[in-house]
Specification:
By secondary structure, this protein is an alpha/beta fold. Helix content is about 40%, strand content about 15%. It has a nine-stranded mixed beta sheet with strand order 1-2-3-5-4-6-7-10-11, sandwiched between helices. The chain has a two-stranded antiparallel ribbon with strand order 8-9.
Length: about 475
Amino acid sequence: MFFRRFLLVGLFCLMATCVHSQPEAPKIEPEECTWFSTILTQAQMDRLECAWLVVPEFRDERESSYNMELALLRIRSRQATDSAPILYLPGGPGEAASSSLTDWMESDLSQAHDIIILDPRGTGFSYPSLICPEASQSKVVDWVSVCRERISARGLDLTAYTIPVIVRDYVDLLSLMDLPQVNVYGSSYGSRLALMLADAAPERIRSLALDGVYPPPLRHTAEVARNLDMALNRLFDDCAKDVACKEAYPELRDAFYRAGAELNASPQELSLLGQKTGMTITGNDFVLMTSSLLQHASAIPYLPGFIASIASGHYDLELLLESELFASDEDDRGSQTESAYLTQRCSEDLAVPEAERYLTDPDGIAPLLIAAARQVVEAHYADCQAWNVPALTSRLESPVTSGIPSLLMSGAYDPATSAQWGSFAAEHLQNNWHFVFPNAGHGMLDSVPCATEIMGAFLSDPLQDPSADCFSALRPPRFVIWRGKSE
């Protein structure tokens, strides 16, 4: 029933203007969970409850023409408990929270806590859906413009899918579920949502757990080059402190910048296990690929060898096969709604003239990093011009201040949400614990088992130091010394 209802309405909404019931006061409507039986065991199904959170289209003085119906899931804890539930706020922006259903089912944190999952507006099973099928169609060259035109033809107003409206949905959810308090866990962009929710409904929140912290009023665009510079310097410094890494790659920093400059002057074709891939790599591509790899804890130990290999003229991706990167990426595919990403990213960050954000080069940053950052930001800005969503400034201009007990978790290697962003947020949170994991990139709970242990201790008593023995034992990555197998 759950999936069938989504499929029928979703297909209709893709073809024409959505027709919904007239707006009503926010409410929760129970629903069957039949569809999930294809991916969950019977024991897991017995722990799952499904519903719709029904909310109006607009959250301001405008009159809503229909209701939003947001997919709501609740995973019951594996043991009887009176502990406050965990409300999960997904990242992206534009990620469907339901894509993490099986992970939460298996998490140690669900042993003593119910897990509440809501697909934000436009994502996952919620509808109207903002899914852009054009994004995956290779024959559609300018999928952003094509999708934007189709969404306009459906009569959907993208201002109804921005962060203040989404936060209000969560406020209604907490009120309608009539829970005394919840523990809020926000990952990446979800940490931004979590901070704004704490500002909007502090009485409903027992604790905040922020993983890969992205706080207002910081803007991702303005910090791309600086964050990458900090992450790379951490890599170079840690390699220099590691005897084996330093011996194998004594001039890693110089090798990286030399390789980038050479590839920008003369792009090369990548190969895999000696076979040409048809993909050409420039210096900017090399920088951005390295930035992406820095986000994955499983890939970081291989990065010095990868950089040295490229710098030596060996343009083969063989080394990366030894990491778990490709397997981990497989699980993430299809979880992000591209149009929801554009709506939130553009309204918060890129709907203003680009000169205000990124044409002023940050001081002390290598030109190679600035050029690569500018390339990706200019591409995003072009998409935002086509997407044409108004700029949003309300509630994003000042840091969130709060006395709610807060756990902040950052990766020392994270080029997306740097540890400095976590420190910035912590300055405005009166009761906080900030852990910087020395061997991780982006997303601690997904990649570092010790993070789960620390979060479990924090949830038991948010006012007590949640430090665990495992954290004091953490060290920088053990770098893999690459000898080359296909040469």
